[in-house]
Amino acid sequence: MPHPSHRNTIFLEDAEVVAHETRDANQFILRMRAPRCAAQATPGSFVHLQCDSLLPMRRPLSIMRVDARQGTIEVLYKCSGIGLEQLAKKKVGMSVSVLGPIGQGFVPHPERPRPLLIGGGVGIPPMIFLSEVLRNRNDARWQPFVLMGSEIPFPFRARPSTLLVPGIPDGTIACMPLLDEWGIASRLASRSDFPGCFQGTVTELADAWLSQLGREALDQVEVFACGPTPMLKAAAEVARRFDVPCQVSLEEYMACAVGGCAGCTVRVMTSSGPAMKRVCVDGPVFDARLVYE
């Protein structure tokens, strides 16, 4: 059962598989009809899926897109391990037990309307979700810029961007087509020599872009990052160097994912000193300065 402080916000649903698409490098996009979860999900929250009735341990997956009107959610995953191998066998019309939405998501601040979104590998989905939410918000003149990094083929067909981004290294023109269609600039980074991508890490690309901004522009920037721990630490360091706030979505092994087992705790600084916080429900999003000193 969910922890008492999260009752009435986390739901258990038997979700119908609406679509299940295969992408390059054994990646999958799964869309499910889970209306209660879809109505409450926020960028950075995740779901805990039962991959097969014979596997008691669920798998946590970040939410990539939500359609509250249709009551659907989408997740992206790379098929690895017995659990996700079973999930990959799910067909349209079949059912998946979904627990969610879980966790504290990203909180964009209107006084910083130029958010820099950094997604690495499995950290890409929350950046798409956050981009779509910002696209539909009218409380500021939002100008999100999305950077994505991957060492395996991206889960979409990259193409040259139609949106100009000053300060980006020459030749870095590849983008995510969906974001381009939304009018949101994006650029891709990889050390795998993919065409049009920045040849380096996604945080090195972030550093290159931030370095050409003046102080007035930097005062409008806030960094949001999700991906492997080394990437998050690098993103936090880049944000610290340019004196801009940074929110990070942490990855951690989870058992219950609803705050009961305390198996996913991390050390976080608080006003009264260091404390152990649960990534599942206290996070997964934290202020980077409180996690990476």
Write the layout of secondary structure elements.
Elements: E1 11-23, E2 27-33, H1 35-40, E3 46-50, E4 59-67, E5 72-78, H2 81-87, E6 95-102, E7 116-120, H3 124-136, E8 145-149, E9 159-160, E10 174-175, H4 177-182, E11 185-190, E12 198-199, H5 202-210, H6 215-218, E13 223-226, H7 229-241, E14 246-249, E15 265-270, E16 273-278, E17 285-287, H8 288-291
Parallel strand pairs: 7-8, 7-13, 8-11, 11-12, 13-14
Antiparallel strand pairs: 1-2, 1-6, 2-5, 3-4, 3-6, 4-5, 9-10, 14-17, 15-16
What are its keywords?
293 residues; alpha/beta; 7-stranded mixed beta sheet; 6-stranded antiparallel beta barrel; 8 helices; 17 strands; 21% helix; disordered N terminus
Describe this structure in words.
By secondary structure, the chain is an alpha/beta fold. The protein contains eight helices and 17 strands. The chain has helices at residues 35-40, 81-87, 124-136, 177-182, 202-210, 215-218, 229-241, 288-291; strands at 11-23, 27-33, 46-50, 59-67, 72-78, 95-102, 116-120, 145-149, 159-160, 174-175, 185-190, 198-199, 223-226, 246-249, 265-270, 273-278, 285-287. It is globular, with a radius of gyration of 18 Å. 44% of the residues are buried.
Provide the CATH topology of the largest domain.
Answer: Rossmann fold
Give the amount of beta strand, in percent: 25-35%
- Given helix and strand content, the structural type is alpha/beta
Terminal CA distance reads 34 Å
How many distinct domains?
2
Largest sheet geometry: 7 strands, mixed
What is the top-level CATH class of the largest domain? Alpha Beta
Q: What is the helix content? A: 10-25%
**Individual helix count:** 8
